[in-house]
Amino acid sequence: MKISVVIPVYNAENYVLQAVESALQFDEVYEVILVEDQSPDNALLVCQQIAEKYGRVQLYQHPDKKNHGAGPSRNLGIEKSTGDFIAFLDADDYFLPNRFDAEKELFKNPKVDGVYGALGVHYYSEKAKKQYYSLFGDRLTTVYKKYDTYNVFLGQLHMLGSFGLFSIDTLTVRREALAKKMNSLFQPHLRMHEDTEFLLRLSYYLNLYPGIIDQAVAIRGVHENNRITKINSRVINPAISRTLLWKEIKTWSESENDISEEVRLHIDRMYRSFEIAKAPVFKKWGMIIKYLFTDYKSIRSGLYNINFRHSLV
């Protein structure tokens, strides 16, 4: 296997070396692609030092040297990569020694387009643990049982009950399948949840298989400055960011003729529920009354999301 590991880097001077070295431990990792995204800290200097030290590390910035976000940075990394397989890693996370154990066997089957696994959690400080333990705990981020490829798509749409989820850090995809089956990669206009939207479309177009899902193959690093903690501490309004996510999914689903009416209706309802969640109080109850008589299932999640705190990871 020749694996390209794509790492977008923003404000991660204290973590990126660990991420890179966790990828370089594998002989299968052909190259590590760092895309530095105009960090406000010294991440660019650290990345330059890493690239000078390790021959398998390539460093890039956007042509205009400006900040574009995680999605466009991953897109640039994919464009620059040359391996047969592509894996992703956030700069404050890291791989475990079993990261590609399942992939070595599963990718022998040419029908396998991608493999996903389980993600653990590490708190970089006691302050981060105190603030966010209720969100992440010590549990795995994983899909709870092995599903066939079509049901991975339905599971991510929340149509299979307790499905679970998987992280971009645990995904490995066949480069050829990505190029042939995906019309677009990460959506550049989504600054939040761009990985969730990408993984959902990916599971629709590609045949994704479970790898190791009962133990961690990578670790999410939780600290005071990463994006998911900012969302849950309400620096970023979670209802608004989720509304934008489901609006994007809704727009995409309307362009796909093969998506069933049942799936389209479910996506509409998810979008409506977050529209209700983010609406001001005077408008919120008007929307609830409207959907109570026209499509009451649209308000079930919306009612729950009024006091927003859950289902953000």
What keyword list fits this structure?
13 helices; globular; 2 domains; three-stranded mixed beta sheet; Spore Coat Polysaccharide Biosynthesis Protein SpsA, Chain A; 15% strand; 313 residues; alpha/beta; seven-stranded mixed beta sheet; 44% helix
Describe this structure in words.
This protein has helices at residues 16-24, 43-53, 70-80, 101-106, 126-136, 149-156, 175-181, 194-205, 227-232, 238-254, 261-278, 281-294, 297-305; strands at residues 3-9, 29-36, 57-61, 85-88, 94-95, 114-116, 118-123, 172-174, 208-210, 216-222. By secondary structure, the protein is α/β, with parallel strands linked by helices. The chain folds into two domains: 3-115 and 142-213, Spore Coat Polysaccharide Biosynthesis Protein SpsA, Chain A, CATH 3.90.550; 238-305, no CATH class. The strands form two sheets. Strands 3-2-1-4-8-6-9 form a seven-stranded mixed sheet, sandwiched between helices. A three-stranded mixed sheet has the order 5-10-7. Helix 2 links the parallel strand 2 (29-36) and strand 3. The radius of gyration is 20 Å and the shape is globular. Mean pLDDT is 88; it is low at 229-235 and 301-313. It comes from Chryseobacterium rhizosphaerae.
Quick take:
With about 325 residues, the protein is α/β, with parallel strands linked by helices.
User: Distance between termini?
Assistant: 31 Å
Taking pLDDT < 50 over at least 5 consecutive residues as the criterion, the unreliable ranges are 229-235, 301-313
What would you say the CATH architecture of the largest domain is? Alpha-Beta Complex
Query: What is the chain-wise order of helices and strands?
Result: EHEHEHEEHEEHHEHHEEHHHHH
Number of helices: 13
Strand fraction: 15-25%
Helix content: 40-55%
- State the oligomer: single chain
Shape: globular
Which strand order spans the largest sheet, edge to edge or round the barrel? 3-2-1-4-8-6-9
**Mind telling me the CATH superfamily name of the largest domain?**
Spore Coat Polysaccharide Biosynthesis Protein SpsA, Chain A
Sheet having the most strands: 7 strands, mixed
CATH class of the largest domain: Alpha Beta
Mean pLDDT: 88
In total, the number of domains comes to: 2
